[in-house]
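Teaching note: in complex prediction, the entire set of molecules is handled at once rather than each chain in isolation. The prompt given to students was simply: 'Predict the structure of this complex.' The entities are:
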Amino acid sequence: MASEEVIRAQGLRKRFGRLTALDGLDLAVAQGQLYGLAGPNGAGKTTLIRTLCGLLRPDEGEAHLLGWRMPSTRVLSQLGYMPQDYAVYDDLSVLQNLEFFGELYDLRRAQVRERANELLELVELTDRSAQRVATLSGGMRRRVSLAISLLHKPRLAFLDEPTAGVDPKLRRSFWDYFNRLAEQDVTLVVTTHLVDEALRCHVVGFLNAGRLLTQGTPDEILAETGMSNLDDAFIALQERGEEGR
Amino acid sequence: MKSFAVMRNVLRRIVRDVRTLVLIVILPLFFVLLYGNSFSGSYKDLTIVVVNQDNGLASVRTSEVGRITLTVDLAKKFVAALDPQMFNIVVSSNPEEATASVGESGVWAALVFPKSFSNAVVNAAVRAGGERKVDYEGNTVTLLPSDAADGPKTTLTIDDANPLAAGTIRAALETAFSQMLATQQSSLTPEGLLDVHALYGGKISILDFTAPGVIGFAMTLITVLLTAMSVVRERTSGTLTRILIAPISAWEVTAGYTLAFSLIAIFQAAELFLASTLLFHIRFAGNPGLVALIIVLFTIGLQGIATLISTIAKNEAQAMQFVLFLLIPSIMISGVFWPIETMPPAIRPLSYISPLTYANSGLRKVMLAGRGIGDISFELTVLGAFALVMLLLSVLSMRRQAYTA
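The expected output is the structure of the full assembly:
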């Protein structure tokens, strides 16, 4: 069961004008995996996530999520997505944001309350649940956004830089939570710039110029690059990618 | 039903956003006050300067007692016959000064009556009407036509930079002139020949006539602005992506939006109609339910236009530009002020594709003439079809936005 492929993408290619954002990318992620997507700015991480979710149509290739070819509406109820922008309603309170999206996912009022309590505790916003989102700091808004993305207990979640602007202590508890979710067979794809975050992933994929340069456990990546830490390994991979172009 | 969740969400956000709330509540009132005061349809207190040199006497030949002199004071009667509401009459004794003042400091016209005005009018009337009998010092005498005498004419100097005002002034002067002649029992007035039956008893003012179109235009502007800005904001903030990746169809999202904005439209229309009937007593002869039906169909179509605009617009400012570019012309081509029949044939097709044309026509029939649903079935059909097509396009554009958001 645990080895079932939840994400399978083949030959994904996506161009925006003259820019090639995805360059024939293959990807396979197994159920319950905590998959870290690393790579420099503009490597194509966000485009990859949006294409996998069906928000962008690839020019070539295909993506399957949970066995369905994307874009498909069949997987939507089991899919969680946290975009890079806040994507929350500024004029509503934290709880109202959660309630609205809960309704879209067919959650009953009581379920929403229960999940909201749990998630607001995780993102440490319990005492601000009645506060308007517009009055929150950027980091807090990201935390609201994360709570919304996980509200409906998705089987598969794409989190685009969930910890940007979040302080180190809270970041650590986020990653603890991600690991707990993975233990419950939830598959998570998380983009990150931070090496210590990448170290906590089961598998790390290193993306550069729309191509997956390498993929493996953090130890495997260290071994492959011959480096002693992931920072150096990433830099080596990036340089290798630039030479290969 | 998820559409209701979307509807509640839209309404809830609007209630909490002061800027949008002001747009919804204040803008219709502002519109009513503006057009009510500027389109009240009648000119008031137009200043005209009158120089009356008329000696009031008319010298006429009679068959019984030779030449007699009658005191008729026609210039005075003419001035008395001028509409006191429309004109602010300033009396002057200096013809040159009076004439020169036209166009300056609010003077619209100057009327200079020559000394022989009464004489000229009476003799012209007798010449035109033939012999007639009048009482003169207890006897009946017969007035005889005389040869035309060349005397100085009455001069009217008028500021016609504003053709509408100049036309109104001239029409009012003609009315006063007919009334003055009527006192001399010597002229045939149109009223004497024609038995006029005005369908609405002449009770429909310019304001009544233009109000349906102006209200329709206000609805157009507010609905399209509001919808376009909402959708653009939803897209640029990223929440639209979140909605579209949730298990809710583009149909349900569009229906939710349509419900919310239709409720707002009804609220605004009620505000517009109430304010214009209470403040400016515009004519509202028909069934308010029919008016609501027209407004709902009309605004659903407008929301569709707005959704399409928001697909193209990158941000709120751009959406605003598209809205103004598309909508400002609609008030000119939809028969609100000028009948479509007066437009060049080349432009007329534009009138027929403007939904405001049909909303205006339907509202006019209901509000001015109190017509029933059967009489506006054509307008309802066109507006209904327009709404349906726009809803379909909105759903398609929502789907498209899912891939471009």
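Point out the following to students. Residues 35 and 72 of chain A are 22 Å apart (CA to CA). Chain A has a mean pLDDT of 88.
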